[in-house]
Amino acid sequence: MGDFVSDPMPSTDDVMIVNAARALGELARAGRATCFVGIGLPSTAANLARNLYSPAPVLIYESGCIGSKPSRLPLSIGDGELGDTADAVVSVPEIFSYWLQAGRIDVGFLGGAQLDRFGNINSTVIGPYGSPRTRLPGAGGAPEIAAAAGRVMLIMRQTRRAFVERCDFRTSIGFGDGKGERQKLGLTGSGTRLVITDLGILEPEHGTDELIMTRTHPGVSREQCRDSTGWKLRFADEVLQTVPANSEELSVLRRVRDGLAQ
Amino acid sequence: MSIVVDLRQAIGEHVKSGMTVAMEGFTHLIPHAAGHEIIRQGLRDLHVIRMTPDVIFDQLIGAGCVRKLTFSWGGNPGVGSLHRFRDAVENAWPRAIAIEEHSHAGMAARYSAGASGLPFGTLRGYRGTDLLEVTENVKVIDCPFTGERITTVRAITPDVSIVHAQRADRTGNVQIWGIIGVQKEALLSAKVAIATVEEVVEHLDPRPGAIVLPGWVMSAVACVPGGAHPSFAMGYSERDNDFYKEWDGISSDRDLFQAWIEQHVLATSDHSSHLRSIGKVSDDGGFRV
Asked: Which residues, in sequence order, are bridge partners of residue A59?
């Protein structure tokens, strides 16, 4: 189509994905963008960034694919396309040991079912572990990504059910209970640095490590953010507004979704 | 006697009810045909191990073959929940199953330790997570050299490990390329190693990035074209993403699921008959997705 003028209002998901891609693009410009990518929203945003920016982030998937350049979005972390277009394909033990735990990953890019005020993630169960209300898929690669990636970026829709005071289960650590818990545990990565939502962006507050709202998307009010958060959400002294998604970003996103080769 | 046998014989001789059975394939090369054969042979009380229990383990669990599941991520990738797995954990249907869950890095370290003949593997992992509290076989120790706190995970040593692979030669040397996952570690950690392959050839010519498991570490190799379906074998087939999406509907209802297993697994004699029953064989007899 390539019609840049008649873009409809972007969906809240698209705004979230565009902002996540921008954050990854900024890291790539700073030379820090080997990115361990989770499937779903992280993969969509990471592939948008790869098609928007030069230098582009290097996409790494837990199936052992390093430097994948898929022409269509993968459904799973091990679609053939990811291996076919990779610079290197290594074994699963190798990707987690030589690459992730050894500190060769700049950015871990994840999602989750629940997130708490200290950036801890739950992807295991809703309700008690022994008798869960909802059994979720579980940890996968996330615990060690959250522990060892230089920094962690999360992309999640902001709702009261998802943004909770305390995770029902702590699958992956952000800042634990705060108070320097990461350092005490000797974790090598710096933890949850950025949470991109459909309402705006949260970042850990200096000194407390509590996630606070630092930016909102155009047209999003503070009340909306508070109402969509299960803890008593605080805001940065100065809350900035994100730049609206532009037509190039949205048209490339459409192309990424529809299949770049087509 | 050749170790290249048919799949019914491979499973029948080597897999018994009550055993610990690992089945690996990280999205790629998942041994679906072997899983179906286990269901057909009515094996029960298995402790099954798989990093990513997806559709094949949903089927084994729903069919009542499983007493315990050890895993690190249980979902239908890119689609959603595994409904049979959830029904077993949440509602004990068709029976209660025990679970032991880890992270991918932990499972990879456990297989590597098993393949190395070591009692445990080490990693920087699990720290600060609730997994440490609910998962046996994970302990944190002091590194004897640096004093650093290091996580250890018990080695996996299955009775049987089963993988799918691209091909083998007539002596049972097995060649795997593309996303190799933990295929090598899974096979070498087990007492009995079984592979299904797309084809058996006279000579394994080199492929970029390929690994070869020598026939003398294998117990059985079975030629099962399309044996990974709906997973795939690089160079032979594509991942059948549509089937993974369809599985969401089939598996969401107990009756639908049971009818599917009855019609497409139990009532079929082998994998080619299974593929024909789900419409994945073209008129000329070839496998198609």
From this structure: A35
Residue A139 phi/psi, 5° resolution? -75, -45
Q: Give me the CATH number covering residue A158.
A: 3.40.1080.10
Q: Do A137 and B128 touch (CB under 8 A)?
A: no
Q: Is B50 helix (H, G, I), strand (E, B) or coil?
A: coil
Looking at the predicted complex, does its ipTM rise above 0.85?
yes
pLDDT at A179: 86
Task: Tell me if A171 and B130 make a contact (CB, 8 A cut-off).
Answer: yes
Tell whether B116 lies on the interface with A, counting CB pairs under 8 A: no
Q: Before B77, cis peptide (omega within 30)? A: no
Which of helix, strand or coil describes residue B105?
helix
CA distance B109 to chain A (A): 7
- Taking CA atoms, A75 is separated from A91, B64, B240, B243, in Å, by 20, 28, 10, 12
- Say which of A136, A143, A169 has its CB closest to residue B103: A143
Q: How far is A162 from chain B (nearest CA, A)?
A: 17
| CA separation for the pair A211, B10 (Å, rounded) | 55
Residue B30 belongs to a domain = yes
pLDDT for the residue B289: 59
Instruction: Kindly give the residue spans of alpha helices, DSSP state H, lying in chain B.
Output: 7-14, 32-40, 55-62, 83-91, 104-116, 131-134, 183-189, 241-251, 254-261, 271-277
Segment B82-96, tens digit of pLDDT = 999 999 999 999 999
What is the pTM for the complete model shown?
0.95
CATH number at residue B194: 3.40.1080.10
User: What's the total number of domains in chain B?
Assistant: 1
B99-155: pLDDT as tens digits: 999 999 999 999 999 999 999 999 999 999 999 999 999 999 999 999 999 999 999
Task: Kindly tell me if the per-residue pLDDT of B285 is higher than 80.
Answer: no
Nearest CA in chain A to B176: A91
Q: Which of B102, B134, B181 sits opposite A63 (nearest CB)?
A: B181
Partner residues linked to B122 by β-bridges: B152
Please indicate, yes or no, if residue B90 is contained in any of the structural domains.
yes
**A62 catalytic residue (yes or no):** yes
Contacts of A141 in chain B (CB under 8 A): 73, 103-105
Task: Quote the minimal CA–CA distance from B267 to chain A in Å.
Answer: 30
A3 CB burial (10 A radius; 0-12, 13-18, 19+): exposed
Residue A174, class by beta-carbon neighbours within 10 Å (0-12 exposed, 13-18 middle, 19+ buried)?
buried
Over the stretch B46-66, which tens digit does the pLDDT of each residue have? Answer: 999 999 999 999 999 999 999
